[in-house]
Amino acid sequence: MSIVGRPPKPVELKRLLGNPGQRALPDLDNVTHLPMAKEIPPAPEGLGLQGINLWDRAWGIAITWLSPDSDLEAIKNAAFLADASEAARKKYMSTLEANDGRAFVSINKAYTDSLTSLGFDPVSRSRLGVAEVRAATSIDRLLERRQNRAKAEEVILVEEYDILVEPETVIYENGETTNNETNSN
What we know:
The protein is mostly helical. The chain has helices spanning about 10-15, 50-60, 70-95, 100-115, 120-130, 140-165, and strands at about 170, 175-180.
């Protein structure tokens, strides 16, 4: 069964951007706040290489919007589908039989749907309101260069300060030395 029309906008996004339809939103006192993951949970037993890679990427990238309490099973399912999709692809590529091709397409569709439900494509990320990919503007590049230059100047100042204050003996090019001890009265 397919859904006709646009999927509903998440309530969190309506709260963030406003509610132009003026439909009643759930009271914040009745909303259950899910804890954010603090670290990558251990991968489930039986995952293959593709599944482990997805598991690590999913928790590493989406740690801000995925909760280990409610989303663990969905990510686990997606990781197992990643392994199944890779196995079906390999089987189809080795046999080139129509049945294997249909199996690969079916498993890959389920895998893609699971990734979409977790917010791992541009449309679902924007609907969740969690991330947006955009090209760096010339202003962004200019600000980055300014910050890098300020950091470089800071390092140079620190190095100069260290040279002027810390050394007790200075050796000149002609081989003479001078003792730069500070007077402590």
